[in-house]
Write a structure and sequence with these properties.
UROD/MetE-like_sf, transferase, TIM Barrel, EC 2.1.1.14, 5-methyltetrahydropteroyltriglutamate-homocysteine S-methyltransferase activity, single chain, alpha/beta, 6 strands, six-stranded parallel β-sheet, Met_Synth_C/arc
């Protein structure tokens, strides 16, 4: 079972101690992986350097279960969509945080890869970490084919060791209809099966 805790730009104000307490309660309830959603690491680079990683590590302090962080590019909110329009043909923001995350105590890094403009070779910067590779676009109702999913995973496997790659969605699917979400999850499962067969 995976539990997700939403973070925010004002992490120091929201207190990593409170997040840590919530995480420990979830762990005690039997959660296997606790994922922190971090929507600011791609935008506020100074904060990542000043306190971002340290705060994240305080939030996971003392946990025995696996921990993950999802670095979101943002959906739906006009400020996010407008910002993404300014990023050009390559989204290299992960390049700022990856070296720090690679050295951090976080076990798993969750990323948006399918239909994004993130260069796959940036994943080399977190080699050795477990990586949730987003192979499903949650910003469209179009259901991916298993082969499209498999192709995204194949590209990631050039930079992520096979035993550390977790096929995933780019982000949450709450805005999608149940039919579309189920179709996308079936495609994710089928695409992962193709890759397992190839390995």
């Amino acid at each position: 079972m995976i539990a997700i805790i939403k973070a925010a730009k004002n992490w120091p104000g929201s207190s990593p101690k409170i997040l840590n307490q919530e995480a420990k309660e979830l762990e005690a309830a039997g959660v296997d992986i606790i994922q922190f959603d971090e929507p600011a690491f791609n935008v506020f680079f100074d904060e990542v350097n000043d306190w971002g990683i340290a705060t994240l590590e305080k939030a996971i302090e003392g946990l025995k279960c696996e921990t993950a962080v999802h670095i979101c590019y943002g959906y739906g909110i006009k400020a996010n969509t407008d910002w993404k329009k300014t990023l050009g043909s390559e989204w290299r923001q992960y390049e700022e945080a990856f070296p720090k995350l690679q050295k951090s105590m976080i076990d798993i890094i969750s990323l948006e890869c399918h239909n994004s403009r993130v260069p796959m070779d940036l994943l080399e910067l977190i080699r050795g970490k477990k990586v949730m590779v987003g192979a499903i676009d949650v910003a469209t109702n179009t259901i991916e084919t298993p082969e499209e999913v498999a192709n995204t995973l194949r590209q990631a496997l050039r930079f992520v060791d096979a035993d550390k790659l977790y096929p995933s969605t780019n982000c949450g699917m709450a805005p999608l209809s149940r039919r579309v979400a189920n179709g996308k999850l079936q495609a994710l499962s089928a695409g992962a099966a193709i890759i397992r067969g190839e390995l």
